[in-house]
Amino acid sequence: MFFFLRNSRAIKIFFVHSNSRDDEKLRVKLETHLSSLQLPKESIKWHSSQTPAGRDWKKESYQHINTVQVIVLLVSPDFIKMDDCRNMTKRAMERHNTGKARVIPVKLRRIDNWQAQPFGNLQYLPRNGEHVTSRFWPRQDDAFVDIVENIRAEIEKLEEEQRQQQLIRKQQKDAKIATIQNFISNQSFERKIIAASMIAFVVVALVVFFSRPSSERQVENLLTQAQNKYDKGEYQGATEDYTKAIDIAPNNVEAYIGRGNAHAYLKNYKAAMNDYTQVIRLAKEEADAYMNRAVVRCALGDKQGTIQDYQKAASLYGKQGATNERKQALDRLQNLQQCLPHSSKERILICISVIALFL
């Protein structure tokens, strides 16, 4: 769910939640309390349960995650279990860790080993540390009030930062114009005409500069477009979009992983391995890159390299508290002989099926 504040430039907020019956009941209660933010009804939308027929809720969800300033995770056991929620959380944390968005976890129901989750080191709501359904809250309304108040405080903080940034940009633009004006005032009439033409050109250039989409936004749009194509099985198109994103942002880890996955489905295993290797150069702790590279190395018949990558992935997953992923890496390591039969044709067929299950 996202909503826009009535401001010169809206702060966008997106809520990621599971579609379980228990979570849906709590979501409805939270929606009621959000009305205290005095938002217009049409500006509040929930990403899955209220998506109109014929609309791709996953596509819309990733579009919001890639552009919003605040992402709220409504965490519960069902949330942790859902693949879609885990994938959206991973993307949200990538943007949070690079300072492009802020992630706020909300503890709807109790879960085990909170600290092991990707967001485990973040301050969560309600502020007292008790989940919404805890006995500590004899009235759940009090828990939701606490959540909304803290979300409001975060919005106000972002609004202030945004105002400061706008003020700085305005001051910079005014300073440039003032410099040109001073230059004009000290010139002869003929030079003033030339200078006037110069200032007109500079003003137009400034308008174009401040109104054009930033390279960051272009990359985010390309990543969203590529992910949508990937989800539809349009792997060649996804590869092309990921490549465009890499051309703009050569150090974008997500673009290399996405392109590697698309290459793998196209059976371009060497290209996929190169992309995963580049991810490892840029982010040595990226466990998924080792896991994915192990899969394509398996397809290429590189048994020793496959073993090393699975071992490294299992080690990193263990450090990060990703228990299920670590078990998966160790299971594959144990059953590696199944991925490397004597026949190269059999090897490729089996590893393709592994890729289809994993990527």
What topology does this entry show?
Elements: E1 2-4, E2 12-16, H1 21-34, H2 57-65, E3 70-75, H3 77-81, H4 83-97, E4 102-107, H5 140-185, H6 189-211, H7 215-231, H8 235-248, H9 253-265, H10 269-282, H11 287-300, H12 303-320, H13 323-334, H14 336-339, H15 344-358
Parallel strand pairs: 2-3, 3-4
Antiparallel strand pairs: 1-2
Describe this structure in words.
The protein is built from 15 helices and four strands. The chain has 359 residues and is mainly alpha-helical. The protein has a four-stranded mixed sheet with strand order 1-2-3-4, with helices on both faces. Strand 1 (2-4) and strand 2 (12-16) form a beta hairpin. Helix 8 (235-248) packs antiparallel against helix 9 and helix 9 (253-265) runs antiparallel to helix 10 (269-282). The longest helix has 46 residues, at 140-185. The protein is flat, with a radius of gyration of 25 Å. The chain starts with a strand and ends with a helix. The model is unreliable at 1-9, 39-45, 49-54 and 341-359 (pLDDT under 50).
